[in-house]
Amino acid sequence: MFSKDQLRADVAALLGVPGDSIGDSDDLVRLGLHSMLLMKLSGTWRRQGYRVQSSQLALEPTIEAWAALLGAGSAPAESAPSPSPSPAPAPAESDPADPAAEAEDEEFALATMQHAYWVGRQSGQALGGVAAHLYVEFDGAGADPDRLERAVAQVVSRHDQLRSAFGEAGKQRILAQPPESFFRVVDLREAADADAELETMRDRMSHQLLDVAAGRVVEFVLTLLPEGKHRLHLDVDMLAADAMSYRRILDDLAAAYESDGALPPVGYSFRQYLAERGDRIPADEHEAARRWWTEKLPSLPETAELPTIAEARRADPSRSVRFHHRLEPEDKTRLYALAHGHGLTPAVTLASVFSEVIARWSARQRFLLNLPLFNREPVHDEIDQVVGDFTNSVLVDVDARASESLVARARRLQRELHSCAAHATYEGLDVLRDLGKLRGSAVTPSVVFTSGLGLGELFSERVTRLFGSPVWILSQGPQVDLDAQVAEVGGGLLVNWDTRRDALPAGVMASMFAEFRALLDSLLAPEADWNAPLSIALPAEQRAAREAAETTSASIAPRTLHAEFFERAARHPERVALVTSQGEELTYGAVAEQALSLANSLITAGVNTGDTVAVIVPKGHRQVISVLGVLAAGAVYLPVGTDQPVARRDRILSRGLVRAVVTGADVEVPEGISRIVFEESISGPRADQAVVPDPDALAYVLFTSGSTGEPKGVEVSHRAAANTLDAIAEEFGLTAEDRTIGLSALEFDLSVFDMFSPLALGGALVCIDADKVRDAAAWAELVAAHRISVLNCAPGLIGMLLDAASADQLRSLRVVITGGDRVDAGMAARMRARVPGLRFAGLGGTTETAIHSTVYEVTDEFPAEWTAVPYGRPLSGVRCRVVNERGEDAPDWVTGELWIGGVSVADGYRGDPERTADRFVTAQGTRWYRTGDLARYLPGGTIDFLGRADHQVKIRGYRVELGEVEAAAKTRPEVGEAVAAVVAGRLSLAVVGAEAGRVVDTVAVAAALAELLPEYMVPDVLHFLEQVPLTSNGKIDRAAIRAVLEREAEGRTVAEYVAPETALEAAIAYIAAQVLGIDRIGVTTDFFDAGANSILATTFVANVRGLLAIDGVGVTDVFSAKTVRGFAARLVEREEVPGQLTQVARILLEVAGVPDPSADLAAARA
């Protein structure tokens, strides 16, 4: 058993400090211990018989804790034998290497990470078709090409992995000799434009796929330049070498070049390392790690949600760009000292800074971060001399939802990392596989942070002395959008971000990297406080753009909704105020008289200023007069549709604290509420004048549907609503000459504009009676007959009007404003084409923010690729924020919750203080309404609406915004509308033609969506609808569409089994089922939905090649074909001898005892 003094001596030797300077309870991380040193310690002690992992040591890094660990749980094997040394079961993502495979050219299995790299370089999968490789350039002078070629040969001869070849079956073999020299010389000493030639070489080599099947895993190029200068290019495929191996290759190259002699052989190989893996990891240890991860899986978060661009929309998905930052030696020293002083490793500190930046640009602040580990166990004296891919990875749960200090965040990340690493015998790729099974689809953490700290200088002094300074470094990797690395270079630190060029919108990655640098610099400043809350400010130019978009007009003053009407009625009683559906014109004077009579009746019935009066009157001019009468009495109006079920109506009257109801003689009201019959009240005595309360008094209460099933009443003041109306009037220059048409229902807040905007300006409102609320042809006639100039309604009603109106009926329109639902760009284009010179705008807002809050006017410069009109900028007097989970303003392009503040925010929810407190909050000195809408800012201060937060669904473990699926479908010119929903566990999409009567080819739409969306977002079911059902408010009736999709789903089995029809299909299905470990698989079932992963796909291909005697088929075919039927079709297409595959398949079926469906079919026909 280890004594504390022995432990102390081992640690002191590694740290280079006196043993007596280390106390029993000292935090060894504070003294400079890091992961590489921990690995050396654990390896040394494991070889002495102690069962201990470096990650176990990291959990509590003190001499006292280690003494207990090594004394109690990890006694040497000879004194306390460990459990049976039977090898651990190989992880599902890698087969154990064959210990007998010692002969050259004999195949052996890939390590876990190797296999991931090999599969990732295959095309036909998300972010695939890219090699995992590291490319470096050195600029120097005086290199001897012949001598360098000999040195390269020595390095390749010394390291067998540099002669490895990777076959189609997913195995590797060592070639006795490379197929050709890996070294070449390019002479540019006389080149006309050497710089252009060098740039071309850099572009090619930094993005190349070396022919690893032929054994080309490395390439050395020496470019000769004028004046004796040179550039050495080195590209190494990570299938053959990890970062530590890269250093070994360069060091050996420099040694061989300097000595111009032979390099000594290495007495151990990567193949041996893989073969012995099972012996090194006891079965119980592996199983315990697997169980730990299995229990952790359900609680793991999703991957970071950066504002990525769909791969299909990227100009070249395989191209990468590099961002880099160097910390000088003095900065590195300060970073290390500060980190150690807080009990943190420098690597975790930098990972925490990186994570903070990712969280700032992610739609979610808790996410999985992929952290590769250089897991080269010290099992042999020459293990550091071996070239190979020893990497593993861990998935770390980063939770940045709370505002906290760097120290707090980093300490939690360090604990999480150590806990995960303590169970890393179950490898990260295996965890990803299990997580994918749990969620029903592959999980790809495309953000990676790789730390090379503790490995020593990436480029030794001898390397840079002989070959020159490193001037360019770029790495690539499959399934990765952002790979951040930090390494020790030139005495300081080099931070590289290698990113896919078009992964994010223009400028986003640059902004992220700039903030990373700024945050890192701030932490190294003399006045830095690592215990202060972390904060990354919104980029200055973005804040300036948003502030510039928010305006407050000096000409808009607080007022009530109705005072302007009664003043105009007194001054110009002869002007037309209302026009009925039958064409009757009612003047301002006549309307005011009837409204004041109604007001008098209410006051006589005991209605006081501030009381609430319900209006239950059929749609038409009587509704408008009723509302004006209620307001003239100083009361608050509460509209209730005449078609409301009695039970819901009575709940609204009760929750709304209604004192009286204006309605018809045939409507019964609950006991205790006064009934004012409209027809009787308007002919009685009139009030002398309208009561005009303070503008901050309530004007109306609108009840909307609530998430709990109970309607919620939104209380809106005069000031709030009037500000919206006046801002719109100023925006579009509305005057007394304008006429509007009241298409919206009274209980829909767009009706507030229809009534009070024209009546406050001296204009006129054309009213729609109840019998014409669905008659778009009648609306068109009214627009033409009364020369309506302003149209305000929901987008669905505009679509109906466009379909019903003739070419000339809409010519009088000069302004069309629409909101309350998604505004389709195609509809905007149709309306503008129909009426030349028309001003068309989409407005965004909520009932809780007084109708409309934002505006975006569509012009000829409207981007062609946009499928919807964005929310735009705030109206005058309105403020907007897009807020993340921490309450911070989200940067441009990043999804967050839309908050609306300013004058137009409602007072709250009637009788519901708890809901009011939840949705109406105060921050930054402003009262805000949290809309629950998802939005993002576009550059320049424009807000883009993305959908309701409650329209997000979980599909195969991914959060999917249904609006994004709908928007993708609407990029197809034949699709006019699209509505997505999850029905019976499947993502379903209903589509409607762009014009009435147009039939949509759902197969073509599905194919297009597969190109535009990630696999998990492609709908499982597409359904064609002849028309879009609308609610009474003119919005898309999603409930009705969902009902259609549900009816279609009835009787359809989700996991529908489709039997093979040919011998080949039956044979492939048999092989697939055997590999997947299931009883059967239908020919239309997705392999990966049935449980396949990259390893199983490789095994399946190998079995197909062997059992069906066919070459030329690879893993790519599995990813592309996805099903048994698709895979069989691919094989038939490549068949050189027609019918041969069928014959082989029949033999296999006979041997396996599987029925031949083609024989059964032939017998049935006979």
Ordered list of secondary-structure elements with their pairings:
Layout: H1 4-15, H2 35-47, H3 54-59, H4 63-73, E1 108-109, H5 112-120, E2 133-141, H6 145-158, E3 164-166, E4 171-174, E5 183-187, H7 194-205, E6 218-224, E7 229-237, H8 243-259, H9 270-275, H10 277-280, H11 283-296, E8 320-327, H12 329-341, H13 346-360, E9 366-374, E10 391-399, H14 406-421, H15 428-439, E11 447-451, H16 461-467, E12 469-476, E13 482-489, E14 492-500, H17 508-524, H18 540-549, H19 563-571, E15 576-579, E16 585-587, H20 588-604, E17 612-616, H21 621-632, E18 636-639, H22 646-655, E19 658-663, E20 674-677, H23 678-681, E21 698-704, E22 712-717, H24 718-732, E23 739-742, H25 750-761, E24 764-767, H26 776-785, E25 790-793, H27 795-804, E26 815-819, H28 825-834, E27 839-844, E28 854-858, E29 873-874, E30 878-883, E31 896-902, E32 908-909, H29 913-919, E33 920-923, E34 926-938, E35 942-948, E36 952-955, E37 958-961, H30 962-969, E38 975-983, E39 986-993, H31 1002-1012, E40 1021-1025, H32 1038-1049, H33 1063-1076, H34 1094-1107, H35 1115-1121, H36 1124-1134, H37 1140-1152, H38 1157-1165
Parallel strand pairs: 5-6, 11-13, 15-24, 17-18, 17-19, 19-20, 23-24, 25-26, 26-27, 39-40
Antiparallel strand pairs: 1-4, 2-7, 2-12, 3-4, 6-7, 8-14, 9-10, 13-14, 15-16, 21-22, 22-32, 27-28, 28-29, 30-31, 31-34, 33-34, 34-35, 36-37, 38-39
